[in-house]
Write a structure and sequence with these properties.
With about 425 residues, the protein is α/β, with parallel strands linked by helices. Helix content is about 45%, strand content about 10%. The protein has 17 helices and eight strands. InterPro entries: DUF2851 (IPR021272).
């Protein structure tokens, strides 16, 4: 038995309420269970109940057994002084407030709908299964799954906008600067994302604006601030970049390179930080107002066009400054741009619309144009339910479902898990 299950039972009143009595034998009537509190303090606020002839308004605390009150030291915590009812699975002792007045208790054992209780036990008794409802997932209604995945996608967008609004605040509400920081971070992918973000934060975007018509100077600033021009290399292009960076460093008071340099280890050459920063320089040398274009884009082809910039000639034969190879284009691949759409463009469009109270949801058209992401989580869900829609919105939703619900046993907060518990799947 999990305490979370009792929260669910109390919140939705899924128990027999006929002739309810407290552990002391007083008649109990519930007018309102209260508002579920997800932070510290009592589990439900502003509940309304009647005990005997007395009407009470206050908080409700829930435990598996009454003695947990003392195990959690609530008797010494003033946050629990206004608890009017202690709801438990099993009542094993009376509990008292600091003034030694008795707190009424309600025992739920024997009062919960047997079907709901059995479904709960069935759901959480699984071992060595990928998700708790793995056996039942194929039977969930298609409409219920699609509706829940849509809600999960917006939940995921909300999580991603937290970083965006933090960056916007740091950038003094400059959306162009915010996009620059977010793009730089995501160009670094998982391996170099943090160091790339530190790089972006270390450069005043006004410098990027002033250099936006010069790809070479942008390269010099990005590579120099990343600490990738610190060594002595006998390569003419490297020396030119280093000299240019030292000049620009003094001109714009750029300061020292970032402390944690980007890494090359275990990266495919196309993801080397030198290549990704050269590509960024190419993108921002085409326009200093990338956001003004990106924010209005409604199709992935528009995004592909924005990010189709060519790197400088040197990088067509190099991945680093120490060795060369046969000429090869280093344009951003469509699969990489799709990742930018998923992790940068659409979240930014959503954040901008939210910030400016724009009702249009063209970002949904954009995300559904992008194909399904390929990873083990998405693959496993589609093996369970092959008929799910196949686009990036759904793969993002499935990642949210797995990591924020399935992996942490939040089945009772999941629309599908709740359906199963009720026996309505």
């Amino acid at each position: 038995m999990r305490e979370e299950f009792l929260h669910y039972i109390w919140q939705f009143q899924k128990f027999d309420k006929t002739e309810l009595k407290t552990a002391a034998g007083e008649l109990l009537h519930i007018y309102h269970p209260g508002t579920h509190n997800l932070d510290s303090g009592p589990d439900f606020f502003t509940s309304k109940i009647k005990i005997g002839d007395q009407l009470w308004a206050g908080n409700v605390e829930i435990h598996l057994k009454s003695s947990d009150w003392y195990a959690h030291h609530h008797e010494t915590d003033s946050a629990y002084d206004n608890v009017i009812l202690h709801v438990v699975w099993y009542h094993d002792t009376d509990i008292f407030r600091k003034d030694e007045s008795l707190i009424p208790s309600l025992e739920l054992k024997g009062k919960i709908d047997p079907e709901i209780h059995q479904n709960y036990l069935e759901l959480f008794s699984k071992e060595n299964e990928w998700i708790n409802c793995e056996k039942y997932f194929p039977n969930f209604d298609d409409f219920d799954i699609e509706s829940w995945l849509t809600r999960l996608y917006f939940e995921r967008l909300e999580e991603k906008t937290k970083l965006i609004f933090d960056l916007l605040k740091q950038s003094k509400n400059d959306w162009e600067a915010t996009l620059f920081k977010l793009l730089v971070k995501n160009f670094g992918l998982n391996k170099n994302g943090d160091s790339f973000l530190a790089l972006a934060n270390s450069i005043d975007y006004e410098v990027i604006r002033k250099l936006s018509n010069d790809r070479f100077q942008l390269e010099a600033v990005l590579l120099g601030k990343a600490g990738l021009l610190d060594e002595d290399v006998e390569e003419n292009y490297f020396k030119s970049l280093k000299n240019e960076y030292e000049f620009l460093q003094k001109k714009f008071s750029l300061g020292l390179p970032i402390e944690t340099k980007p890494v090359f280890f275990r990266l495919r050459p196309d993801n080397f930080p030198t290549i990704r920063l050269a590509q960024l320089a190419a993108v921002f040398s085409r326009s200093a107002s990338v956001f003004s274009v990106v924010s209005k884009a409604k199709s992935k082809n528009e995004i592909y066009d924005i990010f189709s910039a060519e790197v400088s000639e040197f990088w067509t034969t190099h991945y680093n400054f120490r060795s060369n190879h046969k000429p090869k284009p280093k344009r951003l691949s469509k699969s990489f741009i799709d990742l930018l759409i998923i992790n940068t463009i659409v979240p930014l469009q959503y954040a901008f619309a939210k910030s400016n109270h724009i009702a249009e949801e063209s970002y949904l058209d954009l995300i559904t144009e992008v194909g399904l992401e390929k990873n083990s989580v998405v693959k496993n869900f589609y093996q369970l339910k092959p008929k799910l829609s196949k686009n990036a919105m759904h793969s993002q939703s499935l990642l949210q479902l797995k990591r924020s619900y399935c992996d942490v046993n939040r089945c009772l907060k999941c629309a599908l898990g709740a359906k199963f518990i009720k026996g309505k799947y």
